[in-house]
Design brief:
By secondary structure, the chain is mainly alpha-helical. It has 11 helices and 2 strands; from the N terminus they run E-E-H-H-H-H-H-H-H-H-H-H-H.
């Protein structure tokens, strides 16, 4: 954990400018994703200008949407709204799905204006987007946010657990829950940030490799919309930070008392969004795949041979 990578002394003052790890990794993710997409555009004959515009729109819209959903989630959980705190993204506090929704909507409008197929462009750039997001997970690790639950037990669990320093967000959460004292070291937790990073790298590799084998426009994009939510849904069970529950579901659980209701009430907001995105992308995947097969098997229109 290293929230501040280094500081830059300001001349003629006793102050210094902190360089936050999260912001640095977000910038590295932007550069890496842009380079990856630019090289693929040149390789597969796509307009590089359009790809650069998509990348820029995705970054701006993604950060704005991710921060907006984080702020809304915090307000929902009873947190105070502070206007200027909203813009301090270098401290962390981004929800991926908020950025995804805004970035897709903004790019859909832009591509329609440029008269470029949304699905074709999405297939090309989505591996680069996933690579960029993976850098953000390293930023989460260095920042100490998005931490996991205490691993508990010994053996292989203890080997996988990571211990954050006293005063970190993970330590503060454990103190609030009465698991440790203020001066006690933090308990080892699941490295959920690194687990997410590993899943994103694997997904990016699968998508980039599968691009040449795609059978219809949008297949790679929809495949990402299936793989990532599935991985995110499972990793969320190991997260230890507070990410918001649905209060109404908690009330239903107390009223019904059924194990299924209890399970649904324990799902976090990100898990519900993951299920929704997965179901939507899976439905679109099979629908577009079936349409592609029907179009391929349809007989060619007869031509007029007379002259």
């Amino acid at each position: 954990m290293r929230p501040i990578l280094f500081t830059i002394p300001l001349p003629w003052t006793h102050l210094s400018w902190p360089i936050y790890a999260y912001g640095v990794m977000a910038f590295c993710g932007f550069v890496a994703g842009m380079i990856f997409c630019a090289r693929r555009a040149k390789r597969y004959g796509f307009d590089p200008e359009v790809v650069m515009d998509i990348t820029l729109i995705s970054v701006i819209g993604g950060i704005a949407g991710a921060r907006a959903l984080y702020v809304l989630q915090s307000i929902w959980e009873g947190g105070a709204f502070r206007f200027w705190e909203t813009f301090k993204i270098w401290h962390g506090g981004l929800v991926f799905y908020g950025g995804l929704i805004v970035a897709i909507a903004a790019n859909a409008v832009y591509l329609r204006w440029r008269r470029v197929s949304f699905w074709k462009a999405a297939d090309l750039v989505i591996p680069g987007v996933v690579i960029g997001v993976s850098f953000g997970r390293i930023g989460c690790f260095l920042n100490g946010c998005c931490y996991g639950k205490p691993v508990g037990g010994g053996g292989w669990r203890g080997w996988l657990g990571m211990t954050f320093p006293v005063g970190s967000l993970a330590h503060q959460e454990q103190v609030a829950r009465g698991l440790v004292g203020w001066r006690d070291p933090a308990l080892p937790v699941w490295p959920t940030q690194l687990m997410s990073w590993f899943c994103l790298v694997v997904i990016a590799a699968i998508l980039a490799r599968y691009y040449k084998r795609r059978r219809f426009d949008g297949e790679v994009m929809l495949l990402a919309g299936i793989l990532y939510p599935a991985a995110r849904f499972l990793i969320e069970f190991l997260r230890g930070d507070n990410r918001g529950l649905f209060p109404d579901l908690a009330r239903i659980d107390r009223f019904i008392g059924h194990p299924a209701a209890h399970f649904l009430a324990t799902l976090h907001l990100s898990q519900w969004i993951s299920l929704l995105v997965l179901a939507l992308c899976a439905g679109l995947y099979f629908l577009r795949r079936r349409r592609g097969r029907e179009a391929a098997s349809a007989p060619a229109a007869p031509t007029d041979a007379g002259g």
